[in-house]
């Protein structure tokens, strides 16, 4: 990317009220993600923003902000090297912010639960109701609707409430789910002046935070892939960097399958976020690469893995951050083989799509 573009921060800057720590902290967190945790670069960019857009107050400058970051425990100085280090408190704050940001976009949509054909513990219910049936949980009785029915049936003067008047909220049964979030970190994720890796990191952080808060028995593993694939810890997600890599989708899928084989949950799924075609695979100790078009050798191996996932009841949800016709054809074929789901995602709606799919566990069109 040539230079630094501040256009995406203009909204944040225009909304600055008191130019206080909280205001600057919002910008700081966004830049810290973009710089993959490079504190010095983040503060340099904020200083440049201050020079251009006057984001600090007369009595509260960038020096005060850095001091407060340390006082509040978001950074600390390494006693030996004197370098600034990002703390665990910062990791947690970044996950919270990512979750809040994505939920802010979908706050009108009530979170559901993992839908399954097997019985489990009943969790959140929606606003739809149904007639009461013997065996329904009485805690789910919709009293307002039931009283309305009784009033319609018997009137106010002869009011009574019978079993036939009762309605209950419909609830879904929940099941434990194991998920691998598979993120493309090949070079194309920052090409053409578009930052695609930062939204992917936000989704990974938000999803991990959701699971830790709401679905504590679920599991989430995060895998990244370029020329190879490897696992990353949740605490490392904000600091992922795009490398000079090709796109070895095969390695990513293979590692994801290995992880899910070790998980005991019956419901298993892969969420793959990518912006390009498979261009690389490992043959022995060497890499076979072809970045020009869709190579049948690489393609067939990728399709075989989609079929193997289906055989092992692993559903693949592909979020393609590109809309080239030949890529769409590849994704549609890949999805058909796996019987999974595919989305040609807008970066602005990526989080919303993944959250809806994760919670409802069914194919939806957007």
Task: Describe the structure in your own words.
With 366 residues, the chain is α/β, with parallel strands linked by helices. It is built from 11 helices and 12 strands. The strands form 4 sheets. A 6-stranded mixed β-sheet has the order 7-6-5-8-11-12, sandwiched between helices. A two-stranded antiparallel ribbon has the order 1-2. A hairpin with a 3-residue loop joins β6 and β7 (229-232). The model is unreliable at 108-126 and 362-366 (pLDDT under 50).
The number of helical runs is 11
Which series of helices and strands comes N to C? Answer: HHHHEEHEHEEHEEHEEEHEHEH
Q: Order of strands across the biggest sheet? A: 7-6-5-8-11-12
Mean pLDDT comes to: 83
What is the rounded Rg? 25 Å
Structure class: alpha/beta
Query: What general outline do the C-alpha atoms trace?
Result: globular
Helix content: 25-40%
Low-confidence stretches: 108-126, 362-366
Counting DSSP E segments of at least 2 residues, the number of strands comes to 12
Distance linking N and C termini: 31 Å
β-strand amount: 15-25%
Specify the biggest β-sheet: 6 strands, mixed
The gist of it:
By secondary structure, the protein is an alpha/beta fold.
